Amino acid sequence: MLATFIARNYTNVLGVAECIAPLVACSFTLIKYLFLLINSEEIFDMIKEIKELNGKWKNTKLYSEIEKFNALDRRLMKVMEGFCIASIISYILPPMINHIYISFILNEENYDMPYKTDYFYDIFKYRAYEMTFFIQACLGVYAATLHVLVDTLFFGLCMNVCAHLKIIRQTMNERSLKETVSYHNRIFDLIAKMNKVFSAILFGEYAFLSLLLGVNGFLIVMTNDISIRTACCIHGTTGVIELLIYSYSGQKIIDYGQEICDDCYEIDKNYLIVMLRTKHKLRLYSLMYDACLPTVTLIMNRVMAMITLLRSLA
Question: Which residue ranges run through the membrane (predicted)?
Answer without folding.
Answer: 20-38, 83-106, 133-162, 197-220, 287-310
